[in-house]
Fold Major facilitator superfamily (MFS) profile domain-containing protein.
Amino acid sequence: MAGGAGGTGEGISTASLAWSIIMASFAAFGGILFGYDTGTIGGVIAMEDWLTTFGTFSTEPIAGAVNNHYLAANNKSLVVSILSAGTFFGALLAFPLGDMVGRKWGLVSACVIFCLGVGLQLDVHWATFVVGRVIAGVGVGAVSCLVPMYQSECSPKSIRGLIVGLYQLAITIGALLATIVLNATKNQHSHSAWRTPIAIQFAWAFILGGGMMLLPESPRYLLYKDNLPAARKALSRLMTRPEDSPEVEAEIAEISLALEAERQLANNSYIDCFRNTANRNSFRTWTGILLQGFQQLTGINFIIYYGTTFFLSAGITNAFIVSIIVSVVNTCMTIVGVQLIDRVGRRRLLLIGALGMCVCEFIIAIVGVTAGKTTGSGAKVNIPAQRVLIAFVCFYIAFFATSWGPVAWVITGEIFPLAIRAKGMSLSTASNWLWNFGIGYATPYLVDPSTTGPTGIKTAHLAVKVFFIWGATCASCFFFAYFFIAETKGLSLEQIDLLYRESTIIGSNKYRQKMLAENETFAHHESDKADDEKSHV
Ligand code: BGC
């Protein structure tokens, strides 16, 4: 029997698998768009032509100035962090888009918004450039939520983790591509130095938007909108089975029944996302919001955004190469990670990953403040200590890439019941971007040395000691995963719904195994419940 989109069946046919891969690959371009866009700005604002076009002219010698042009600190933080403001609102926009025009057309609209933002960034006026960043951010934010939503609603249950995980892989590939393109154009002496890396983003949007137009709409969304004929057609395409086949029929019955049970609770407003009824909406919403927040609190973007400057300040001379190595480790280990999700399980991977990252961060912090210390009179760079630092940063990235990187998106895509899925996912993704912004903004104040003079800033100057903080937050990630994350490996979205209604978090793996052993579905469960009620009358 074919596993199909919802996967009430046991296996998965080759044709269905091929179709899932096509669907996942197109949708994954959303990840490339996300990773590439966040990865370009740092390089663009350091380019000579960009600085002469947008920077401030000064006759005084100023650190970091190129051709007497520099970017003042407030403008730098504006142009870098304004994207996160856009992405935050874009993630919130994903709910009306995903529920009103649908997952498929929502993604196409997000691509149009993104292209508008990219187009504006090709202009040579500061205000247009900044507005372009915000608008592109809105597109990225909406895409970052709608892609995993679409993927999890359309993939067969047995490989859902792998398919949504491919989105994370695409994010890392996007960041890697950004590094390569920036490196190739950075020495050009015309506007094309920065316009080329920015304009390349049209390609990602065209592939994603164009591909989505050819793909079927999510059958779950169509049933949610009571469009049974279209849902049947979409399921038949996704499952590669005739529209009137028993497999398609069973799938429709299962999704409709779970939807009906939710509708009986009549709870699908934003307030209802925070109410605990029989289906534990509030618990699920907080799980999504906190999970995405904790993903950022692992400290990953400290390395991604500030890696180069951090390595330099730690006395590592070829810091640029180290950050390319970090990018490559991130991409390669994500390839390993996506294959583990449906084998090892979500909960277990998060627990192992949190523990692994925690140990690495404490080792980096301890080595950094002892053997690796570079400040103080006569302190020399300790080469073996530097190597240990780099090695443990790579181990840390490897743990992230095989756990919290992909798994956070997989879980966010599967824990919400259909009636509040778009709202729950958009709140969770917005939390990711809010923390992303907060950590990105606060990091220089935590890590860098204080500066004096009229524009001087007082900072905490933690330097490598900041890894004690990341170590502690990773320990919190472990406890969060232990108490909040259920094991959902191999279950259909409707079975997950049932699991949240019927099981505790700690006992979720046992309940899951029982469900799989008895091939428990929403439909069976409801009819057993009805029989029980009858026998009690
Ligand atoms: C995170 C991003 C991060 C990226 C790194 C994503 O899952 O949400 O903030 O930059 O992984 O690979």
Remarks:
- The mean pLDDT is 87.
- Residues 168, 171-172, 295, 300-301, 304, 330, 405, 432, 436 surround beta-D-glucopyranose (CB under 6 Å).
- The longest helix spans residues 14-44.
- Residues 4-530 form a domain with the Growth Hormone; Chain: A; fold (CATH 1.20.1250.20).
